[in-house]
Amino acid sequence: MGLLTITDQNFDEMVIKSDLPVLVDFWAQWCAPCRSMTPILEKYAEENPGVRVGKVNVDDEGALAERYEVRSIPMFLVFKGGKVVGKAVGARGREELADFVKSV
Fold this sequence. Notes:
This protein has 104 residues and is of the alpha/beta class. 37% of the residues lie in helices and 27% in strands.
């Protein structure tokens, strides 16, 4: 499926109402660790079709960042059944990311 661009306008449809677990990356273009996560997230999304993977640009979607109390980026939230079930802050490798998603 690839990476989804998640905005305030499509958040409910893509995340809250999703039948699949959703990994959401809160990021910003100016954040080097955030940019380093993009190829890792792309590979993860390709290898895990049972998980939706999306990115929220905190500069463009400040209301979403505020709603989920994003204080540091990159920040990853896992949603299941429309609820946050996991949170991690900071860049990580592909295996560490996969382990995080599996653990929640």
